[in-house]
Protein backbone atom coordinates (compact mmCIF):
# COMPACT_ATOMS: atom_id res chain seq x y z
CA UNK A 1 0.00 0.00 0.00
CA UNK A 2 1.39 3.42 -0.98
CA UNK A 3 1.57 5.90 1.89
CA UNK A 4 0.72 9.46 0.78
CA UNK A 5 2.69 10.95 3.66
CA UNK A 6 5.92 10.15 1.83
CA UNK A 7 5.33 13.02 -0.63
CA UNK A 8 4.90 15.77 1.93
CA UNK A 9 7.34 18.60 1.16
CA UNK A 10 9.80 18.61 -1.73
CA UNK A 11 13.19 19.79 -0.46
CA UNK A 12 14.17 23.26 -1.68
CA UNK A 13 17.24 22.01 -3.50
CA UNK A 14 19.07 21.39 -0.21
CA UNK A 15 19.80 17.85 -1.46
CA UNK A 16 19.82 16.23 -4.89
CA UNK A 17 16.46 15.48 -6.49
CA UNK A 18 15.75 11.77 -6.13
CA UNK A 19 14.70 10.16 -9.41
CA UNK A 20 13.18 6.75 -10.17
CA UNK A 21 13.41 5.51 -13.78
CA UNK A 22 10.56 3.23 -14.90
CA UNK A 23 11.15 1.62 -18.32
CA UNK A 24 11.04 -1.94 -19.64
CA UNK A 25 14.16 -1.39 -21.78
CA UNK A 26 17.37 -2.25 -19.96
CA UNK A 27 19.29 -0.08 -22.44
CA UNK A 28 17.13 2.97 -21.76
CA UNK A 29 17.42 2.45 -18.00
CA UNK A 30 21.20 2.22 -18.31
CA UNK A 31 21.59 5.24 -20.60
CA UNK A 32 19.27 7.47 -18.60
CA UNK A 33 20.80 6.40 -15.30
CA UNK A 34 24.31 7.13 -16.51
CA UNK A 35 23.41 10.53 -17.95
CA UNK A 36 21.42 11.67 -14.91
CA UNK A 37 24.06 10.54 -12.42
CA UNK A 38 26.48 12.96 -14.09
CA UNK A 39 24.46 15.87 -12.73
CA UNK A 40 25.26 16.94 -9.16
CA UNK A 41 21.67 18.02 -8.44
CA UNK A 42 20.18 14.61 -9.31
CA UNK A 43 20.38 11.24 -7.57
CA UNK A 44 19.02 8.15 -9.33
CA UNK A 45 17.50 6.04 -6.56
CA UNK A 46 16.41 3.13 -8.74
CA UNK A 47 15.41 1.79 -12.15
CA UNK A 48 12.30 -0.39 -12.46
CA UNK A 49 11.39 -2.58 -15.47
CA UNK A 50 7.63 -2.36 -14.86
CA UNK A 51 5.04 -0.60 -12.67
CA UNK A 52 4.83 -3.44 -10.13
CA UNK A 53 8.53 -3.20 -9.32
CA UNK A 54 8.21 0.60 -9.42
CA UNK A 55 5.42 0.50 -6.82
CA UNK A 56 7.67 -1.23 -4.30
CA UNK A 57 10.61 1.07 -5.08
CA UNK A 58 8.45 4.16 -4.54
CA UNK A 59 7.61 3.03 -1.01
CA UNK A 60 11.17 1.95 -0.20
CA UNK A 61 13.22 4.70 -1.86
CA UNK A 62 10.93 7.75 -1.78
CA UNK A 63 11.70 9.41 -5.13
CA UNK A 64 10.87 13.07 -5.74
CA UNK A 65 10.33 12.58 -9.48
CA UNK A 66 9.56 9.59 -11.72
CA UNK A 67 10.42 9.15 -15.39
CA UNK A 68 7.85 6.81 -16.92
CA UNK A 69 7.67 4.82 -20.13
CA UNK A 70 4.19 4.27 -21.59
CA UNK A 71 4.45 0.87 -23.28
CA UNK A 72 5.45 -1.70 -20.66
CA UNK A 73 4.60 -5.31 -19.75
CA UNK A 74 2.08 -6.31 -17.05
CA UNK A 75 0.67 -2.75 -16.78
CA UNK A 76 0.88 0.11 -19.28
CA UNK A 77 2.22 3.50 -18.18
CA UNK A 78 -1.11 5.36 -18.50
CA UNK A 79 -2.88 2.91 -16.18
CA UNK A 80 -0.03 3.11 -13.69
CA UNK A 81 -0.02 6.91 -13.89
CA UNK A 82 -3.72 7.13 -13.11
CA UNK A 83 -3.32 4.82 -10.11
CA UNK A 84 -0.33 6.85 -8.93
CA UNK A 85 -2.22 10.15 -9.20
CA UNK A 86 -5.16 8.66 -7.31
CA UNK A 87 -3.29 7.10 -4.39
CA UNK A 88 0.25 8.48 -4.25
CA UNK A 89 0.70 11.60 -6.43
CA UNK A 90 4.24 12.37 -7.53
CA UNK A 91 5.66 14.51 -10.34
CA UNK A 92 5.91 12.25 -13.41
CA UNK A 93 7.82 12.90 -16.64
CA UNK A 94 6.70 10.76 -19.55
CA UNK A 95 9.32 9.37 -21.93
CA UNK A 96 7.57 8.28 -25.10
CA UNK A 97 8.45 7.10 -28.60
CA UNK A 98 9.03 9.64 -31.34
CA UNK A 99 5.90 8.81 -33.36
CA UNK A 100 2.56 10.48 -34.11
CA UNK A 101 0.85 7.70 -32.13
CA UNK A 102 3.24 8.36 -29.26
CA UNK A 103 2.16 11.99 -29.34
CA UNK A 104 -1.50 11.11 -28.88
CA UNK A 105 -0.76 8.78 -25.98
CA UNK A 106 1.60 11.27 -24.36
CA UNK A 107 -1.11 13.92 -24.51
CA UNK A 108 -3.42 11.46 -22.75
CA UNK A 109 -0.73 11.07 -20.09
CA UNK A 110 -0.56 14.84 -19.57
CA UNK A 111 -4.32 14.88 -19.06
CA UNK A 112 -3.93 12.03 -16.56
CA UNK A 113 -1.51 14.09 -14.46
CA UNK A 114 2.00 13.93 -15.94
CA UNK A 115 3.83 17.24 -15.62
CA UNK A 116 6.10 16.88 -18.66
CA UNK A 117 6.70 14.75 -21.74
CA UNK A 118 9.96 14.01 -23.57
CA UNK A 119 11.08 11.68 -26.35
CA UNK A 120 13.05 8.56 -25.62
CA UNK A 121 16.68 8.63 -26.78
CA UNK A 122 16.96 7.45 -30.39
CA UNK A 123 18.87 8.13 -33.57
CA UNK A 124 16.36 10.91 -34.30
CA UNK A 125 16.84 12.56 -30.93
CA UNK A 126 20.37 12.85 -29.60
CA UNK A 127 21.16 11.73 -26.08
CA UNK A 128 23.03 15.01 -25.58
CA UNK A 129 19.97 17.12 -26.29
CA UNK A 130 17.83 14.77 -24.21
CA UNK A 131 20.18 14.98 -21.23
CA UNK A 132 20.09 18.79 -21.17
CA UNK A 133 16.32 18.93 -21.42
CA UNK A 134 15.61 16.00 -19.11
CA UNK A 135 17.73 17.49 -16.32
CA UNK A 136 15.87 20.80 -16.67
CA UNK A 137 12.50 19.01 -16.67
CA UNK A 138 13.40 16.97 -13.58
CA UNK A 139 14.51 20.02 -11.62
CA UNK A 140 11.32 21.82 -12.63
CA UNK A 141 9.12 18.81 -11.83
CA UNK A 142 10.61 18.54 -8.34
CA UNK A 143 9.09 21.95 -7.56
CA UNK A 144 5.59 20.99 -8.65
CA UNK A 145 3.03 20.16 -5.98
CA UNK A 146 1.00 17.32 -7.45
CA UNK A 147 -2.54 16.88 -6.17
CA UNK A 148 -4.52 13.68 -5.94
CA UNK A 149 -6.89 12.96 -8.81
CA UNK A 150 -9.96 10.79 -8.95
CA UNK A 151 -9.57 7.54 -10.88
CA UNK A 152 -10.31 7.42 -14.60
CA UNK A 153 -9.58 9.86 -17.39
CA UNK A 154 -9.58 13.54 -16.53
CA UNK A 155 -12.76 15.35 -17.51
CA UNK A 156 -12.43 18.53 -19.59
CA UNK A 157 -13.05 21.71 -17.66
CA UNK A 158 -16.29 23.58 -18.23
CA UNK A 159 -15.98 25.94 -21.21
CA UNK A 160 -14.64 29.34 -20.25
CA UNK A 161 -16.76 32.45 -20.79
CA UNK A 162 -16.23 33.48 -24.39
CA UNK A 163 -14.77 36.97 -24.69
CA UNK A 164 -15.52 39.40 -27.49
CA UNK A 165 -13.74 42.13 -29.45
CA UNK A 166 -15.31 45.48 -30.34
CA UNK A 167 -12.86 46.18 -33.16
CA UNK A 168 -10.57 44.15 -35.35
CA UNK A 169 -6.82 44.34 -34.95
CA UNK A 170 -3.70 43.41 -36.88
CA UNK A 171 -1.54 43.02 -33.80
CA UNK A 172 0.40 39.83 -33.12
CA UNK A 173 0.43 38.06 -29.74
CA UNK A 174 3.52 35.97 -28.99
CA UNK A 175 3.21 33.47 -26.11
CA UNK A 176 5.94 31.39 -24.44
CA UNK A 177 5.46 28.59 -21.90
CA UNK A 178 7.04 25.45 -20.49
CA UNK A 179 6.26 23.28 -17.43
CA UNK A 180 2.51 23.48 -16.81
CA UNK A 181 2.04 25.28 -20.10
CA UNK A 182 -0.24 22.78 -21.80
CA UNK A 183 -3.05 23.47 -19.33
CA UNK A 184 -2.18 27.17 -19.10
CA UNK A 185 -2.38 27.61 -22.86
CA UNK A 186 -5.76 25.90 -22.96
CA UNK A 187 -7.07 28.33 -20.36
CA UNK A 188 -5.67 31.30 -22.28
CA UNK A 189 -6.88 30.28 -25.74
CA UNK A 190 -10.33 28.81 -24.99
CA UNK A 191 -12.01 32.11 -23.99
CA UNK A 192 -10.85 33.93 -27.14
CA UNK A 193 -13.39 34.84 -29.83
CA UNK A 194 -13.13 33.59 -33.40
CA UNK A 195 -11.79 36.99 -34.54
CA UNK A 196 -9.03 37.13 -31.90
CA UNK A 197 -5.67 38.63 -32.92
CA UNK A 198 -3.02 36.50 -34.60
CA UNK A 199 -1.21 34.32 -32.07
CA UNK A 200 2.14 32.49 -32.23
CA UNK A 201 3.12 30.11 -29.44
CA UNK A 202 6.29 28.37 -28.31
CA UNK A 203 5.60 25.63 -25.77
CA UNK A 204 8.51 23.39 -24.80
CA UNK A 205 7.37 20.02 -26.20
CA UNK A 206 8.99 17.38 -28.41
CA UNK A 207 8.33 16.55 -32.04
CA UNK A 208 4.92 15.04 -32.89
CA UNK A 209 3.55 15.89 -29.46
CA UNK A 210 2.96 19.51 -30.51
CA UNK A 211 0.77 18.41 -33.42
CA UNK A 212 -1.44 16.32 -31.13
CA UNK A 213 -1.58 19.22 -28.69
CA UNK A 214 -2.51 21.73 -31.39
CA UNK A 215 -5.20 19.43 -32.77
CA UNK A 216 -6.72 19.03 -29.32
CA UNK A 217 -6.78 22.81 -28.77
CA UNK A 218 -8.33 23.27 -32.19
CA UNK A 219 -11.27 21.11 -31.09
CA UNK A 220 -11.77 23.18 -27.93
CA UNK A 221 -11.26 26.74 -29.17
CA UNK A 222 -13.25 29.17 -31.33
CA UNK A 223 -10.04 30.18 -33.09
CA UNK A 224 -8.13 27.88 -35.42
CA UNK A 225 -5.15 26.24 -33.71
CA UNK A 226 -2.56 24.35 -35.72
CA UNK A 227 1.05 23.24 -35.59
CA UNK A 228 3.01 25.87 -37.48
CA UNK A 229 4.39 25.14 -40.93
CA UNK A 230 6.95 27.23 -42.74
CA UNK A 231 5.17 29.99 -44.66
CA UNK A 232 1.89 29.82 -42.72
CA UNK A 233 0.10 33.16 -42.57
CA UNK A 234 0.04 34.74 -39.12
CA UNK A 235 -3.47 36.17 -39.14
CA UNK A 236 -6.45 37.00 -36.97
CA UNK A 237 -8.45 34.01 -35.78
CA UNK A 238 -5.47 31.65 -35.84
CA UNK A 239 -2.92 30.40 -33.31
CA UNK A 240 0.24 28.69 -34.56
CA UNK A 241 2.12 26.31 -32.22
CA UNK A 242 5.87 25.87 -32.72
CA UNK A 243 6.63 22.31 -33.90
CA UNK A 244 8.58 20.25 -31.39
CA UNK A 245 12.33 20.23 -32.01
CA UNK A 246 12.15 23.25 -34.39
CA UNK A 247 12.23 26.99 -33.82
CA UNK A 248 9.31 29.28 -34.72
CA UNK A 249 9.82 32.87 -35.86
CA UNK A 250 7.58 35.67 -37.14
CA UNK A 251 8.57 37.48 -40.35
CA UNK A 252 7.09 40.32 -42.42
CA UNK A 253 5.99 39.66 -45.98
CA UNK A 254 4.87 43.02 -47.31
CA UNK A 255 2.02 44.17 -45.08
CA UNK A 256 1.45 40.65 -43.74
CA UNK A 257 3.12 38.42 -41.18
CA UNK A 258 4.21 34.85 -41.91
CA UNK A 259 5.66 32.03 -39.85
CA UNK A 260 9.17 30.73 -40.35
CA UNK A 261 9.95 27.26 -39.03
CA UNK A 262 13.63 26.36 -38.94
CA UNK A 263 16.19 23.97 -37.52
CA UNK A 264 19.06 25.16 -35.41
CA UNK A 265 20.93 24.62 -32.16
CA UNK A 266 19.39 24.74 -28.70
CA UNK A 267 18.82 28.39 -27.74
CA UNK A 268 18.48 29.16 -24.05
CA UNK A 269 18.74 25.36 -23.64
CA UNK A 270 15.64 24.74 -25.75
CA UNK A 271 14.42 23.95 -29.26
CA UNK A 272 11.90 25.42 -29.85
CA UNK A 273 13.00 28.45 -27.88
CA UNK A 274 10.78 31.23 -26.55
CA UNK A 275 13.67 33.67 -26.96
CA UNK A 276 13.84 32.92 -30.69
CA UNK A 277 10.12 33.62 -31.11
CA UNK A 278 10.11 36.77 -28.97
CA UNK A 279 13.20 38.25 -30.63
CA UNK A 280 11.66 37.78 -34.07
CA UNK A 281 8.47 39.46 -32.86
CA UNK A 282 10.52 42.36 -31.51
CA UNK A 283 12.34 42.78 -34.81
CA UNK A 284 9.48 42.36 -37.27
CA UNK A 285 6.41 43.46 -35.29
CA UNK A 286 7.84 45.88 -32.73
CA UNK A 287 5.14 47.89 -30.97
CA UNK A 288 2.52 45.99 -32.99
CA UNK A 289 3.26 42.90 -30.88
CA UNK A 290 2.13 41.74 -27.44
CA UNK A 291 4.34 39.37 -25.45
CA UNK A 292 3.00 36.86 -22.92
CA UNK A 293 5.17 34.61 -20.77
CA UNK A 294 3.56 31.77 -18.85
CA UNK A 295 4.55 29.08 -16.34
CA UNK A 296 7.90 27.32 -16.73
CA UNK A 297 11.34 26.83 -15.24
CA UNK A 298 14.44 28.71 -16.30
CA UNK A 299 14.85 31.98 -18.14
CA UNK A 300 14.00 31.15 -21.75
CA UNK A 301 12.06 34.14 -23.06
CA UNK A 302 13.60 36.76 -20.77
CA UNK A 303 16.00 38.22 -23.34
CA UNK A 304 13.37 38.09 -26.06
CA UNK A 305 10.72 39.74 -23.90
CA UNK A 306 13.19 42.48 -22.96
CA UNK A 307 13.76 43.13 -26.67
CA UNK A 308 10.00 43.22 -27.31
CA UNK A 309 9.54 45.64 -24.41
CA UNK A 310 12.35 47.81 -25.72
CA UNK A 311 10.65 48.03 -29.11
CA UNK A 312 7.40 49.26 -27.55
CA UNK A 313 5.47 45.99 -27.31
CA UNK A 314 3.19 45.53 -24.30
CA UNK A 315 4.14 42.53 -22.19
CA UNK A 316 2.36 40.26 -19.71
CA UNK A 317 3.65 37.68 -17.22
CA UNK A 318 1.64 35.05 -15.36
CA UNK A 319 1.68 35.63 -11.60
CA UNK A 320 3.33 33.30 -9.11
CA UNK A 321 0.12 32.06 -7.48
CA UNK A 322 -1.28 30.64 -10.71
CA UNK A 323 2.00 29.21 -12.09
CA UNK A 324 2.92 25.55 -11.87
CA UNK A 325 6.55 26.73 -11.84
CA UNK A 326 7.26 30.46 -11.36
CA UNK A 327 10.58 30.51 -13.19
CA UNK A 328 10.27 32.04 -16.66
CA UNK A 329 7.81 34.75 -15.59
CA UNK A 330 9.89 35.58 -12.52
CA UNK A 331 13.04 36.07 -14.61
CA UNK A 332 11.26 38.30 -17.10
CA UNK A 333 9.77 40.38 -14.29
CA UNK A 334 13.16 40.73 -12.59
CA UNK A 335 14.65 41.94 -15.89
CA UNK A 336 12.15 44.81 -15.99
CA UNK A 337 10.64 43.46 -19.21
CA UNK A 338 7.02 43.06 -18.00
CA UNK A 339 4.22 45.63 -18.02
CA UNK A 340 1.50 43.51 -16.37
CA UNK A 341 1.69 40.62 -13.89
CA UNK A 342 -1.66 38.82 -13.89
CA UNK A 343 -3.39 35.63 -12.72
CA UNK A 344 -3.71 33.13 -15.54
CA UNK A 345 -7.47 33.56 -16.02
CA UNK A 346 -7.12 37.36 -16.33
CA UNK A 347 -4.61 37.14 -19.17
CA UNK A 348 -6.99 36.46 -22.12
CA UNK A 349 -9.08 39.57 -21.48
CA UNK A 350 -6.02 41.78 -20.99
CA UNK A 351 -4.52 40.47 -24.24
CA UNK A 352 -7.65 41.51 -26.13
CA UNK A 353 -7.75 44.91 -24.42
CA UNK A 354 -4.15 45.63 -25.39
CA UNK A 355 -4.70 44.37 -28.93
CA UNK A 356 -7.53 46.87 -29.46
CA UNK A 357 -5.53 49.87 -28.27
CA UNK A 358 -3.97 52.16 -30.86
Task: Provide an overview of this structure.
By secondary structure, this protein is of the alpha/beta class. The protein folds into 2 domains: 138 residues, Response regulator (Rossmann fold, 3-Layer(aba) Sandwich), CATH 3.40.50.2300; 184 residues, Rossmann fold (3-Layer(aba) Sandwich), CATH 3.40.50. The strands form 3 sheets. A 7-stranded parallel beta sheet has the order 8-10-7-6-13-14-15, with helices on both faces. Helix 4 links the parallel strand 4 and strand 5. It is elongated and about 60 Å long. The N terminus is likely disordered.
Helices, strands, pairings?
Elements: E1 17-22, H1 26-37, E2 42-48, H2 51-61, E3 65-69, H3 77-87, E4 92-96, H4 100-112, E5 116-119, H5 127-141, E6 172-177, H6 181-189, E7 198-203, H7 209-220, E8 224-227, E9 233-234, E10 238-241, E11 247-253, E12 256-262, H8 274-284, E13 289-293, H9 302-310, E14 314-318, H10 328-334, E15 340-342, H11 347-355
Parallel strand pairs: 1-2, 1-3, 3-4, 4-5, 6-7, 6-13, 7-10, 8-10, 13-14, 14-15
Antiparallel strand pairs: 9-12, 11-12
Notable traits:
358 residues, five-stranded parallel sheet, 21% strand, 11 helices, alpha/beta, single chain
N-to-C order of helices and strands: EHEHEHEHEHEHEHEEEEEHEHEHEH
Percent range for β-strand residues? 15-25%
Task: Record the strand order, biggest sheet.
Answer: 8-10-7-6-13-14-15
CATH topology description of the largest domain: Rossmann fold
Low-confidence regions: 1-11, 152-156
Largest sheet: 7 strands, parallel
Overall, the morphology is: elongated
The helix content is 25-40%
How many DSSP E strands? 15
Backbone structural class: alpha/beta
Name of the CATH class of the largest domain:
Alpha Beta
Domain count: the total is 2
As a whole number of angstroms, the C-alpha radius of gyration is 20 Å
Amino acid sequence: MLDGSLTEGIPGMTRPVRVLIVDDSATVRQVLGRELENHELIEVVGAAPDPYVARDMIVQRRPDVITLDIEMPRMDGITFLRKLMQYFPLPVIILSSLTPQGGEVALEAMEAGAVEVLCKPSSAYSIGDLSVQLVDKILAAARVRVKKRAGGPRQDQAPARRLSMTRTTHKVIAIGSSTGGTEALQRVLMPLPANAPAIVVTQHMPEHFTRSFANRLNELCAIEVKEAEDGDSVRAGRALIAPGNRHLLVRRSGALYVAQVKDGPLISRHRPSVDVLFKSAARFAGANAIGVILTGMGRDGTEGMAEMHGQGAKTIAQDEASCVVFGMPKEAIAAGAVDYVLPLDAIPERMLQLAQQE
